[in-house]
Amino acid sequence: MLYQFLYMLLSLFPTLFLYKWRLLHAGFIIFFALIGIWNGATYYFEGHCTPSKDVIPNLTRLPCLVFVKRYDEELRRQMDMLKEFESVAGILRDSMN
């Protein structure tokens, strides 16, 4: 119980300053909004492409939009779950007939 009280005091302490100073509050909100924008923008796309030398001989790396592995893995996991659900539903349907 004491730890919960100390945690509450520690987490509420910065709010006194955020309430008192408008610029600090605005900076706080802008900072976390930018972090959210950055996280959202970098979730789906990543990396650089390495073009072949005969296409662009002088460039070694170009920025490109590539779907991130974790996004692809999440889609594959959901598709596998859907297929498993459909197979179980088919087995249950067949056993009821």
Give an overview of the whole structure.
The chain is mainly alpha-helical and 97 residues long. It has one domain. The protein is built from three helices and two strands, in the order H-H-E-E-H. Strands 1-2 form a two-stranded antiparallel ribbon. Helix 1 crosses helix 2. It is elongated, with a radius of gyration of 25 Å. The model has no long low-confidence stretch (mean pLDDT 78).
Question: SSE layout and pairings?
Answer:
Elements: H1 2-20, H2 22-44, E1 45-49, E2 62-67, H3 69-96
Antiparallel strand pairs: 1-2
Tally the structural domains. Answer: 1
The main sheet comes to:
2 strands, antiparallel
**Order of H and E elements:** HHEEH
Helical residues, percent: over 70%
Enumerate the spans where pLDDT stays under 50 for 5 or more consecutive residues. none
Broad structural category: mainly alpha
- Taken from the alpha-carbon principal axes, the silhouette is elongated
**What Rg is obtained from the alpha carbons, in whole angstroms?**
25 Å
Count the E strands.
2
